[in-house]
Amino acid sequence: MPSILIVDDDAAQLTILQRILKREGYTVQTVGDSKAALAAIEEKLFDLVISDMWMSSRFEGRELLREIKRTDPDLPVLIMTAFAELNDAVNLVAHEGAFYYLEKPIQIDVLKREVQHALQTRGALISQSDADGDEAPPDIRFKNIIGESEEMQHLFKNMSRIIHRGVTQVLITGETGTGKSLIARALHKHGARREQPFVAINCGAIPDTLIESELFGYEKGAFTDAVKEKKGLFEVANRGVLFLDEIGDMPIQTQSKLLHVLEEREIRRIGGTRSLKVDVCVLAATNKNLLEALRNNAFREDLYFRLNVIPLHVPPLREHHEDIPRLVNFFLQKFSTEYTGAPTKQVAPQAMSALRRYQWPGNIRQLENYLRRIFVLSENEVIDMEELPPEILDTSLPVTDVEFDIPEDGVSLEEIIKEYVCSALTKTHGQQIKAAQLLGISRRKLQHRMQKYGLHSRDFKDSAAASD
Questions:
Q1: Quick one: average pLDDT of 204-225?
Q2: How many Å separate Cα 266 from the centre of its chain?
Q3: CA-CA distance, 342 to 336, in Å (whole number)?
Q4: Are 118 and 76 within 8 A, CB to CB?
Q5: 77 - beta bridge partners?
Q6: Cα angle: 36, vertex 41, 46; to 5 degrees
Q7: Residues 124, 120: Cα–Cα separation, whole Å
Q8: Which of 451, 173, 151, 181 is closest to 322 using CA atoms?
Q9: Are 371 and 332 in contact (CB under 8 A)?
Q10: Which among 174, 186, 97 has a CA at the least distance from the CA of 362?
Q11: What dihedral angle (degrees, nearest 10) is formed by the CA atoms of 155, 160, 163, 164?
Q12: How confident is the model at residue 400, as a pLDDT?
């Protein structure tokens, strides 16, 4: 029986939610603050946490969410929020890893739906043994995807679980250039449908008037230019995988028909009178914030929930820039193979350091394009600082000078590390992503250090404001 933990400092709210969810057959435990919640999570395995966003205790729902995601990234967390705090809740979903939010006053049907949806996702991703005794899936080596960082290893584990369990609907999110299509192809290559077709379509590149005929096909005579029947991509991908890239750009009227296909597993060609059964694994990807699109009525809510059964987020390069040296070497080796007679090239240490500090708004695609240009134009076997674009050189400054006296009895390594962390946060006015880049570590590792040393971003923002 699924186990749910509810966190709220409102005793009446706790009682009501506990009663509703117990009637649904769930095991429910309630606590009044985040500290008690963390203690409960340490003692017992929960399948879902429902937490209020703002509580009277010093440890708020936002910090509880971050701590849960640090210790158990796959544990879904639903955030309860008032209307005035809705934007903050949406940000927690979009950027902090919350599963979704429940707007107060909480509607019973919405509560039941979101709980069921979150538990379905948890059931597909947990790595513990299933009830039938199956063991956790082994990690799969995705040779064409480079990444040894913690963020990428987490992505690989979730991909392995998806493949192991034969999931047929996955929503891949991430910024432009992060490699979402590469992830989709890897899921197909290592999955049970690897011998069947992989069919891809960019929903944003097809005119609105043509996308339905591309997806569902049409019968002869369905319209003026339909001189013969045409199979749609769902038919072409039957028994295989259909990758809907940039699904956030799909017209709203087509979204309705796509929802029908996902629910009924059948299509009807344009101008046709009979339905055709299809067995297709649908992988969808987007660089857009679909939650914002929901609020703007640009994306159907029911389709979002249907697609988002298994979310898979691809991190931007700036959040795992410790992988940059491996990516650089991979691309340089690739180019030396592509261009016949070209010598193998390397990057000088100082230039590599500059590449690591750059934010890469275009992500891995931008890195590859920059390296290709440098590879072709450079006459040297070692790429140095002079050959890097100006925008990269602008961010190649050192963290800052850190000076402190070393006492006669010595100083611990932890004290030195803390000084550098504080220095980076001071230089960036508490902006964690930039501070992590200056230090050459991931944001998650920086947050771990900050928590260990009792540091808070707001302290460095305040100090910056005081000095202005």
A1: 87
A2: 30
A3: 5
A4: yes
A5: 49
A6: 130
A7: 6
A8: 151
A9: yes
A10: 174
A11: -150
A12: 43
pLDDT at 247 over 90: yes
Q: Give phi and psi for 49, each to the nearest 5.
A: -120, 130
- 119 HSE (CA, 13 A, CB side): 20
What is the β-pairing status of strands 382-383 and 217-218? unpaired
* pLDDT on residue 123: 58
Rounded CA-CA distance 438/399 in Å is 5
Q: What's at 72, amino acid-wise? A: D
Q: 249 CB contacts (<8 Å, ≥6 apart)?
A: 203, 204, 288
- Tokens 């998650």 belong to 444
Cβ contact 300:252 at 8 Å: yes
Handedness of CA 12, 16, 18, 19 (dihedral sign): positive
β partners of residue 170: 283
Q: Which of 71, 465, 88 is nearest to 79 (CA)?
A: 88
Query: Any residues with CB less than 8 A from the CB of 58 and at least 6 apart, and which?
Result: none
CA-based nearest residue to 1, from 25, 20, 19, 21? 25
Sign of CA dihedral 292, 294, 297, 303: positive
Q: Are 356 and 321 in contact (CB under 8 A)?
A: yes
CA separation for the pair 354, 189 (Å, rounded):
35
C-alpha 6: how far from chain center: 25
Position 13 pLDDT exceeds 50: yes
Tens digit of each residue's pLDDT (9 = 90 or more) over 154-190: 899 889 888 887 778 899 999 999 999 999 999 999 9
- Asked if 68 and 41 touch (Cβ cutoff 8 Å), the reply is yes
Looking at residue 51, its pLDDT comes to: 92
- Separation of alpha carbons 448 and 446, rounded Å: 5
Place of tokens 């890897």: 186
Q: Residue 468 carries which side chain, given as an amino acid letter?
A: D
